Fold this sequence. Notes:
Elements: E1 8-9, E2 16-17, H1 33-53, H2 60-76, H3 81-89, H4 101-104, E3 107-114, E4 117-124
Antiparallel strand pairs: 1-2, 3-4
Helix pairs in contact: 1-2, 2-3
Amino acid sequence: MAEQPPVIVSLRSGRFSPPPRELGYRARMALNPTEEDRIRLFSAAELARRTLRDGCLLNAPEVVALVADEVHRAARAGKTYGEVLAAGRSAVTPDQMMEGIADLVTEIRVEALLDEGTRFFVVRGIGG
């Protein structure tokens, strides 16, 4: 089996840059800012899910990422506006958050794509 070429990561920008073409790469993926934000959000939400699986409590950024990711997932699944909001509210329970986080994160604003177009969601009552 041929050896895989290395992937170069810039520590300054945090972006992946492909190795030179002679190592086998032809082109790099071009993402728009919205797609980059969605990938970052998904990564943070996956980290939050891993934190929960490890039996630890979630901090504020993890709660925000998990709620926002659940909003995106519900919207992508074709749910209605109300169902998407309900999915965001129920993404995290109070016993999954560190003490004081429910008071700190009172609302999360998320823009997600529904069947009828992009909608703006304000999720309040998180973990309630």
